[in-house]
Each structure stands twice: as C-alpha cells, then as structure tokens.
Amino acid sequence: MDKSSGLFFFLICFVCLCQTANAVFMEKLANKKICADKDCSYVISMAKALDDYIASDCRHINLRRGHLIYVYSKLKPVEGAGVFWSGSVYGDHYVDQMGVIGYFPSNYVNETHIFQKKTVEIPTTDIDFLCV
C-alpha cells in the first residue's frame, strides 16, 4: 500500500469511528418483531399515512398525511405497550426522507397492500433501537 492509499484508509476509518461515537442505545420498544425474512430486509407491506406524525426521538420517522410507507417490520408489543412498525417513506416527492428507516405508530397508517403474507417472528436486538 502506498503512502496516499494508507492515508486515505486511515481517514475513512477515522470518519467511521467518529460517526459511531455519537450513537446511543435507546430503550427497547418490544422484545420481538415480525418480518418478511430473518434479516428484515424485504418489505412486508405498503401503508398510507392517515395523519401527520412527529417523531418523538431518533428511532422514529416523521409522517405526513398521504405519505406512502414501505413496512419492513412490525413490533410485537409487550402487554399494554403501543404498537409500532418500522418502515421508510416512499415516493418521488419525498426524496429527502427515502431510505431512512424508523418506527411509527401503526394507528397512524392504513395498510394498503400486503407483499408478503408469510412472515417470521424474531427477537429484537439492541441495534434495532440504536439512535445515530
């Protein structure tokens, strides 16, 4: 590795370490979640926001009435807890929010299309509730 490649590699590593230093583990919202696959990488369904929702912390995403949302997982609530789903806003008008995955209350959306009827239930991890 030449000198410039080594410096570039060092800078990339330094930037990555600095970004993870600001991450905070938040309280778990549930111990289990329902996903389309064991990695929660496939979309379960599409939903449409019924009302505006302002994220309460960095684990959540903001929704505006009419937003289309890809749903990736559905948390299985602990008795008495709210029901949250995780997803990402979809649409050409919302490019600034596309790709950002976060939680939102399921009662703020209407599930409009089911992509995956067969789902798996898996345990949540601390990483599921990491705030970056």
Automatic annotation (TrEMBL):
Domain SH3: 42-114
Gene3D superfamilies membership: SH3 Domains
Keyword line: SH3 domain, Signal
InterPro entries per the UniProt record, alphabetical: OTOR, SH3-like_dom_sf, SH3_domain
Keyword Signal set for record: yes
SUPFAM superfamilies: SH3-domain (SSF50044)
The organism's place on the tree of life at top rank: Eukaryota
Signal peptide: 1-23
GO BP annotations, alphabetical order: cartilage condensation
PANTHER family: OTORAPLIN
Protein name: Otoraplin
Organism: Triplophysa rosa (Cave loach)
